[in-house]
Specification:
two-stranded antiparallel ribbon; 10 helices; 8 strands; mainly alpha; single chain
């Protein structure tokens, strides 16, 4: 028996426009999408004319990443709050376009700290929602305390932060990049410098410069005003600010669950599951269970 093409087309339209196209009604988000994609496209053209093909790839990557929130809403039936979605889009633009191509990571020392703090905050919200969704689902026998949900969100965020540092280290080691930015210090404390090889740190202070001795005997003074710490301080600083962001949202999430979902601030960052729409009459999709009791 052949299927009715008109009915199939109507079903497909409802599937797309009713169930998964909630973003279509979000004018601010659509405006943000259009503006950021236009800016990235203009940067892509400029970099292509300049022959900076690595930056062209970065622009393409940013355009792909911009599509992730919409894909999550359509495919996973998860409603991303407007505030969270806009922050994610701005985060991608700030990291890939402003940070990498416009070199904000070098021009503004606080830029990397700001993004890592925001990263910890966002992924704490994601981790929180993953547990909270199960907590609210009547089909799952899972009733976790607010403290446990907050701790899980914190651990999820920190795990993502650690994995990202692994990625940065891998790129630097395998591709000779410098994602783990170096730090200039004026003192080092190392057991490696102990003349007898003992486990006693030797303190070298008041370092004014670093001189590199090449294999051919020539020397190069770096003129950086100290010793070059390669990546370690940057990594620990990134994890510290990620920790701060994760702690902040975990506390917000704790009181959100404690008050049975009444916190307005938390709801701006916590994704919710949308109930699948099965009606083909053109009615609005079922709203997420944002006010259900945990």
């Amino acid at each position: 028996m052949k299927k009715n093409p008109a009915k199939k087309k109507q079903s497909k339209r409802n599937w797309y426009s009713i169930e998964y196209r909630r973003v279509g009604n979000k004018k601010l988000i659509i405006g943000t999408y259009v503006l950021l994609r236009l800016l990235v496209f203009l940067v892509l053209i400029a970099q292509a004319f300049n022959g900076n093909y690595e930056h062209v790839f970065t622009c393409v990557l940013a355009l792909v990443l911009f599509s992730i929130p919409t894909i999550i809403e359509r495919r996973l039936h998860i409603d991303l709050p407007d505030t969270l979605e806009i922050i994610i889009l701005l985060f991608i633009f700030a990291a890939e376009i402003l940070g990498e191509i416009e070199e904000y990571y070098v021009l503004f020392p606080f830029w990397d700290d700001l993004l890592h703090t925001l990263n910890g905050f966002i992924f704490a919200a994601v981790g929180f929602s993953m547990v909270d969704i199960l907590n609210r689902n009547r089909r799952v026998t899972l009733q976790l305390s607010p403290f446990y949900v907050a701790v899980t969100a914190f651990c999820f965020s920190m795990t993502i932060g650690v994995l990202w540092e692994f990625f940065e280290w891998g790129v630097d080691a395998l591709m000779a990049k410098d994602m783990q930015k170096d730090t200039i210090v004026q003192a080092i404390h190392s057991v490696t410098l102990h003349p007898e090889g003992r486990n006693i740190p030797v303190h070298v202070t008041d370092i004014a410069d670093t001189i590199i001795l090449h294999s051919d005997g020539t020397q190069t003074a770096l003129g950086i005003g100290g010793y070059l710490d390669i990546g370690l301080i940057d990594t620990m600083n990134d994890l510290l600010v990620n920790f701060i962001g994760a702690i902040v949202f975990s506390c917000i999430g704790y009181f959100y669950v404690k008050s049975r979902g009444k916190g307005r601030l938390a709801r701006q960052f916590i994704p919710q599951v949308m109930e699948k729409q099965t009606d083909t009459t053109g009615e609005a999709p079922t709203q997420p269970e944002s006010n259900a009791e945990p």
